[in-house]
Amino acid sequence: MKENSLEKNLILKKRIEISDTLKRGKRFDSGTIRIILLPNPELKKLKVAFLVSKRLGRESVLRNKVKRWFREIFRTNKQYFPDQVQIIITSPRPYTELDYTSLKNDFLEVVGSEKFTNFVNQNLSKTDIPAKNE
Fold this sequence. Notes:
It is a single chain. 44% of the residues lie in helices and 16% in strands. The protein is α+β, with helices and mostly antiparallel strands.
């Protein structure tokens, strides 16, 4: 499979895992995008979910377009995320106000921020320690 593809086994599907990530995960916001991370040392690979709410966009065509944009942005930039983490990507803004360029710029702003980088580095080092002892 291509290195830059989004494999089906990377999608976070279980309702309990999604709700747990929403409740206990660390939020990173920037304008039009919100990224929620929850370290999970039990995972071998990262898992991601793209949440799009009916409250922010009634038309299914628009919601599906936003989901495609989220998947494409994540697929081309997944190198910013470590393994062993659950990720939720969503937007707090009404979807009629969104466009691909602003979503991508805000995504890159979030993953490039010092706050995000420090969180990833701290939690990556914590999850790597048990793996070395085995």
